[in-house]
Predict the 3D structure of the following.
Amino acid sequence: MPREDTKTGVIVQFPAPQHGSACLVTIYGHDLGRRVALDGLSPTVVGRGETCDVVVDMDNVSRRHCEVQRAQNGAHVIVDLRSTNGTFVNNDEIQGPRELKNGDLIKVGGTIFKYLDGESVEGLFHEEIYKLTIFDGLTEIYNKRYFLEFLEREMSRCQRYGRTLSMMMMDIDHFKRVNDDFGHIAGDYVLREIAGVVRAKVRREECFARYGGEELALVMPEAELVKVRAFAEKIRATVEQHRFVFEGRDIPVTLSIGVAQMTDATHEPAAFIQAADERLYQAKHQGRNQVVA
């Protein structure tokens, strides 16, 4: 039977790396938070095979997928080992040896590693562990855990002071078709790209998060429903007009959006989310690529 898609796991606590020891930290995929030290002269091999230094047991990962080498100048270089699905650094598929810079994101199958160099690596490591508790590693927006905490806090505040609170639930139309027709790596690209497009329009006091799978959520404190409805339409149109191109192929992408405002009947987070989700379902049922408020 085929494996299920990679799911975000439980953060694992590891001892802090020593100063001067570069490492890879898993920020998305299985073994979230795992640290792999890169302090030896031998290459660090990543792949599905049991003999690899870093084992990523997924069908879209080759047995020996890629390796990180120490260059003569002391820098670390990543090389793809003729893998089937390629190795990506900062969303770009590498074609030859690629020198790694601090903070580079390395994607192997459904797993993303972050490269941390030897400068102040202990502080950087703990910073990454903290980020894993509130951010989604793939899209780099807030995760569901932070979203729920933010929503509960804002609902209490707005109820206390008699202020409005609105929410959008967004879903990528026919996302399964994107994965089937273009591949799961292309699906990940679409998720990251949409997150970036929407995030650029979100205000500091709002919370934009990945709620689950291809579903995104936006909480907007002190925003009237009519303005939120217009903003949702702007987001929908922006995504529809945006050009999504992966490996030279255009991918048609649209969003369906449900909008709700907190009322006496939705004074609990679960009820509020359900209200927005019901409107999202209506948008899907009525033909997709539309806003229902």
In short: Residues 1-19 have pLDDT under 50 and may be disordered. The longest strand covers residues 165-172. The radius of gyration is 21 Å.
